[in-house]
Amino acid sequence: MSVHLIIKSLLRRKVVTALLLLQLAVTLGLVVNALLLASAAKELVEQPTGLALEQIFTVRVKPTNTAMRVQPALSEVVSRQLAAIRQIPGVAAAEFTNQIPLRQGGRNSNIFEIEREDESNVNSVPYYNTGGQIFLVLGVKLIVGRELTDLDIGSENIVLTEKLAKQLFLEQNPLGKVTNQGTVVGVVSDFFSQRYASDPLFAAINFVPLEGVDRGYHLLVRVEEGQSEAVREQLTDVIRNAEPEMDIDTVMRMDENRDDVFRSEIGLATLLAVLSGLMLLVAMISAYSHAHFHALQMQKEVGIKRALGASKARVLMDVLSESWLTTAIGAGFGILVCYGLNISLAKVISIPAVPVWLPLLTLVLLLLCVTLATWYPARIATRISPATATKTL
Amino acid sequence: MEALLHNLKLSWYSIKRAPLPYALTLLILSLGLGTFFSNATLYYWMNRDPIPQKSATLFMARINSTPGDCTDCFDPPRVMSYMDMQKMSGSGISSAEAAMFSSDAYAKTVENQQATPSKVELRVTQRDFFKLFNVPFLHGEAWPDNKARMEVVISKNTALKFFSRTDVVGQEMLIDDKLYKVIGVLNDWAMLPRLYDVNGRRSAEPAEDIYLPLETAYDLAFQSNTQNRYFNVDWDGNMANYPQMARTNFVNQLQFWVQLDGPEKVQQYQQFLKNLVVDEKAAGRHTRPEGNKLDNILDVQKAMQATNDQLDAFALVASLFLLVCVVNASHLSLNRYMANQYEFSLRRALGASRWQLQSQIMADVLLSSALAFAAALLFAQLGLWTINSLLPSTAALANWDWQMLGVMALFVLLISYLVTLYPALKTSFSPLNQQLKQ
User: Fold this and answer.
1) What is the pLDDT of residues B39-68, one digit of tens each?
2) A278 at the B interface (CB within 8 A)?
3) Where are the domains of chain B?
4) CA-CA distance, B100 to B212, in Å (whole number)?
5) How far is it, in rounded angstroms, from Cα A161 to Cα B55?
6) A289 and B332 in contact (C-beta within 8 Å)?
7) Do A293 and B310 touch (CB under 8 A)?
């Protein structure tokens, strides 16, 4: 059947066709943008963190007894808890810290090299007040200089991540540089610190003891591979036994923290994916019932065609090619819709621009769905025998 | 009535004759409506006016007093310092005013000292808080002034939890190991959205358990658990100095609310803030440009950038989905009516008036509306459940009241009518002859 004839037959049913095209256009626009958001969320979640996510547990604790929230009692409690945790079989290392990687919140401050304040100032860098095993727990690699040791406790020595050191000192040797936050003694490999800091990979580590833990503090535990569930089961009890007057939050593995941090993005992407699925379903239902209804209406026409010698395959192709044509035209308008929707969405959330290939891919997907839905009614149409179809003529 | 019943019966027969196309139409329509309703529910709760009788008079005041030379910093911080609060209070213009922040602590009763203390959410605030937001008291009353005192107001649920009864005025309880006397118990109260504190996008959270006087909280070094920002603070971390330090430095953690009855008062208060900044500048403080903000309670989510963008984006998409479903359903119902055209034409030929045909169609609309409404509510419930489990902090927003149900039912009726409108007109006004010949 020629395209010309199909278009003529479509024009005879203007309203139905217009409704069909509108629906296909919006469907394409939505599916494209939903796929885009889903892929952006996936990229966000799966970006490298520099951490062995499945081997690190975090738990926030806070003494319920106010006397334990200040030094020196606090340090004593913390070391008791850490000693107990390190006894658990399967634990490789454990340390306290004021804040944990990946999560927002904690102490952030600006940092600059004393001699070049204006050029080197970085606005927001997370500070980790922690202790000796932190490098083992995080599993970061030493790039230059040395790691901090127990001798550095209470000193002004700091260790920076590689990216932060590069940003601050460019190509110069960072060791021995004096910043407003202390003297740099080492640089370690990057890890994902805080999403909304000046850069997610910026971090500074010092061994300043915790002061005033009004918001509690965190215990970080590194476990040997494959031991994570065994350790998780015991962790809360061990911490409680070490010090009963303690509020203990849920134990979370680092990958659970990550999913929580990106929960809004993952949530929206999942919602839109579900909605896209529903839209494709709706498009299929519509294609099915349209073809079904049309096949009944066109009974006589099909009968005549068959009587004049058209093969079953030919009739099948006729019905299918009409579906394909409407889908293609609808999708053509859909490309406009998808750019329009992309612009409107970009006003409320961050969404990447539409790459050229994505609407085309979605068009193929849509064609596939429509073909699948049209197949059964098209088959019914071909089964009409010429004799029955032309009986009333 | 009898005619209506008859028409409903006819509609039912016509459905029974071809159940699949009808079911598909209904499915598509209710899917679209359900998705739209679930989103609209969340949107409604996020954006409604929680205190309509006085929302026009409640304002959050901020000044741009942060230290530092920044000539293009026009936006004040979201939270104010104790010094700012002192300067903005006592204007004599507002009829109520209170500063506040949220915190948490561990509490237990005096009788049960051995028990593990349980975590309680605190609202650290001043006397007028309860007046500002129409908070109802069940027993007792608020503090007589804003001075430091070891007295707390607690919520009804907190009273029940710790004392197993509500009339506990005069009882004592331990909060973070300090002894407080309960002077008031609130009746059931919640503000949704919680517009008095939206910082950190916490507007969907419940009201707090215990209300603590602001001065006491400063004396005992309670800090905000939402946001506290230090600007140029030189402090050695010694908690003994905290009360003095926090009151005289830019330790910003407060939100300051005023009640201004009428536009003149609003103008007067704005002028008061202006004069305040001029005086401050003359005294060599307030180095940044003037950036006074007096946000009405209904604009505060926007001003604090606490709107839920994901929900907004989903609202846009859900509306488009509804459009697709309506278009689709009307396409399907057109097909259905065309298939029934012969019957319609026959009735017209036998003398049925257009009015009678229309009432038949209305009965159709009524029946599909009822079915679509039920199915849409089901899908909406499913949608709400999905959204709640996927998007954080929407769980408190998933309820329907009668008013909402009514609006939704009307909406379904309207949409169903819209969907049937064109097909109905087409079938009742097409040339009879041609139709009957087929």
Assistant:
1) 888 888 888 888 999 999 999 999 998 887
2) yes
3) 2-49+308-437, 64-291
4) 10
5) 49
6) yes
7) no
Query: DSSP letters of B33-87?
Result: HHHHHHHHHHHHHHHS-S-TTTGGGEEEEE-----S--TT--SPPSSB-HHHHHH
Which are the contacts of B298, defined by CB distance < 8 A and separation ≥ 6? B49, B55, B195
At A304, list the tokens.
């005549």
Which residue ranges make up each domain of chain A?
Answer: 3-46+264-389, 53-261
Alpha helix segments (H runs only) across chain A: 3-12, 14-46, 73-87, 117-120, 134-138, 162-169, 228-242, 254-261, 263-297, 299-307, 312-348, 357-383, 386-389
Residue entry with tokens 């037959």: A9
* Residue A137 pLDDT > 80: yes
Q: Any chain A CB within 8 A of the CB of B325? A: yes
Q: Do B334 and A65 touch (CB under 8 A)?
A: no
Q: Is residue B259 within 8 Å of B231, Cβ to Cβ?
A: no
* ipTM value: 0.78
Region for B177 from its dihedrals, namely left if φ exceeds 0, alpha if ψ lies in -120 to 50, beta otherwise: left
CA dist., res. A251 & res. B146, Å (int):
40
Nearest to B204 by CA among B216, B192, B217, B186: B192
Helix, strand, or coil here: B251?
A: strand
Q: Does residue A175 contact residue A185 with C-beta atoms inside 8 Å?
A: yes
pLDDT in tens, B327-382: 888 888 887 777 777 777 777 788 777 777 778 778 888 888 888 899 999 998 88
CB B147 within 8 A of CB B119: no
Tokens of B88: 């903005």
Kindly determine whether residue B386 and residue A271, on different chains, have CB atoms separated by under 8 Å. yes
What average pLDDT does this structure show over A150-159?
A: 87
Whole-number CA gyration radius for chain A: 32
Min Cα–Cα distance to chain A from B119, Å:
8
Cα B209 to chain centroid distance, Å, stands at: 20
Contact B37, B408 (CB under 8 A): yes
- The encoded tokens of residue B134 equal 């129409």
Give residue-wise pLDDT tens across range A210-241.
876 777 899 999 999 888 888 898 899 999 99
- Give the residue ranges of DSSP H helices in B257-353: 263-282, 300-303, 309-339, 341-349
